[in-house]
Amino acid sequence: MFELATDGPKVIVCGVDGSDPSLHAAAYAWGLARRSDAHLVLVYAVAVAAMSTLTPGGAAVVREASEQVAEEMRAELEKAAERARVSYEFRREPGDPASVLTRIADEVRADAVIVGASAQAGHRLIGSVAVRLVRAGRWPVTVVP
What we know:
Helix 1 links the parallel strand 1 (11-15) and strand 2. 46% of the residues lie in helices and 21% in strands. The longest helix is centred in the middle third of the chain and has 26 residues, at 58-83. The chain has helices at residues 20-36, 58-83, 97-107, 123-126, 129-136, and strands spanning 11-15, 39-46, 87-94, 112-116, 141-144. The chain has a single domain (11-144), classed as Rossmann fold (3-Layer(aba) Sandwich), CATH 3.40.50. The chain is of the alpha/beta class. It is globular and about 50 Å long. The protein starts with 10 loop residues before the first strand and ends with a strand. The chain has a five-stranded parallel β-sheet with strand order 3-2-1-4-5, with helices on both faces.
């Protein structure tokens, strides 16, 4: 028997990087998780640029900056959790964002993956994170502008 509002996703993975589109995606995912009583896994994938590792201390600077961004996002999530209770976890993982999101979505058996739309022109040539996730074809992917 069908019951209204009980057949939505139970595990949602959302990629965040601090950009406006990713924050919009996180807000959308938060609302979906709240309405569906789902567990939300917010993933901050830190891609270390190859050039940063060639300069003395470059990788350390990138790591420190990514840790600062992660802590700011974690603080915002705690504030949001005070306003609207959602079961969530925040994960900071090194690596290519599409690969990290794919691995974690498989690991947690995600029912849905949500990401922000890319505004970078180069992604039209090599493919954005969203396009790569859709091509993986293992879960519904929602791209939020």
